[in-house]
Each structure stands twice: as structure tokens, then as C-alpha cells.
Design goal:
about 150 residues; 5 helices
Length: about 150
């Protein structure tokens, strides 16, 4: 029973400890471009976390029913929260929305409440603290190659 929860707890702490260090610098929004900006101002890396959200379509509802629920609950007015930076938003066929946000650490509760109050009844939600692994992977590959060259010489 507890064996299933142990990897999740370890993943949580790994994300919490490594998430801030692994993120790349946030580009500043272009203030000279015309039209509305959907990106909030840059979030300080040391004060932010990345969150991966999966909104799975409830299979007993069609698209019109899902839209009615979202509109009735005001989902689009509260999600994403105003202080969230959208890193990516993908629709995966057969799964639903896969959204990666960068949010200030002190607004995770607000993000969770926006999902609870706006998405429930339309989507089944999965939320994961996450981090950008690309730079860690690149460093590892580089060190691995250097070690290989040392062994060959």
C-alpha cells in the first residue's frame, strides 16, 4: 500500500529541490509589440515553480457539454491565473490538455483553487510539480563524453 506513494514523494522532493536550478532564464516580454499580451511579466526563477497540468476530458460529455460546464463555472476567467506564465499548452488526442505553467511559489494554492472551482465537472485533473530537465541532460551527456575520451586515451 505505501510502496506506491514512496516514488511520488521522492519525485515531489526532487522536483522541489531541482526545479528552480534547472529552469532557463525567462525572456522579458516584448513591450513594443501591438495587441494584448497573454504573458505576464517575467517571474523571478528563485521564487517560482513549474507545474504540469493534465486536463483529461470526461468521457461522458461531448465538447458542447464540456464548454457549457466551463462557462457556467467561469473557468476561463480564473484559469490560467493572472500571475502564471504559460510555458506550453498542448492538446493530446485521447488525453486532453497538457499545460506547463511557471508560477510564483506563493500562488500554487490559487492555481489549485482555480482548477477545483472551474475545471471540475468538465475535466479530470492531474497536477505535477515539474522542472526543465534539458540543461541537466546536456551537462550529463557532455561529462559522459569527456569521461569516454579520457578512457580511450
Amino acid at each position: 500500500m505505501y510502496k506506491k506513494g514512496i516514488p511520488l514523494v521522492a519525485l515531489f522532493f526532487l522536483c522541489l529541490l531541482a526545479g528552480i536550478q534547472a529552469q532557463e532564464p525567462v525572456p522579458q516580454p516584448d513591450t513594443n509589440s501591438p495587441g494584448p499580451s497573454f504573458e505576464p511579466k517575467a517571474i523571478a526563477l528563485e521564487d517560482s515553480v513549474m507545474v504540469t497540468i493534465i486536463l483529461r476530458h470526461q468521457q461522458d460529455k461531448n465538447l458542447q457539454e464540456i464548454r457549457r460546464v466551463l462557462e457556467a463555472q467561469g473557468f476561463w476567467d480564473m484559469f490560467p491565473t493572472t500571475d502564471a506564465r504559460i510555458i506550453s499548452w498542448t492538446i493530446a488526442m485521447g488525453l486532453g490538455h497538457v499545460i506547463v505553467l511557471q508560477v510564483p511559489a506563493n500562488s500554487v494554492r490559487r492555481l489549485n483553487l482555480a482548477l477545483q472551482n472551474g475545471a471540475w465537472g468538465a475535466y479530470d485533473t492531474d497536477i505535477y510539480l515539474s522542472y526543465d530537465y534539458k540543461s541537466i541532460w546536456a551537462d550529463y551527456i557532455q561529462k559522459r563524453e569527456e569521461a569516454r575520451e579520457d578512457r580511450i586515451d
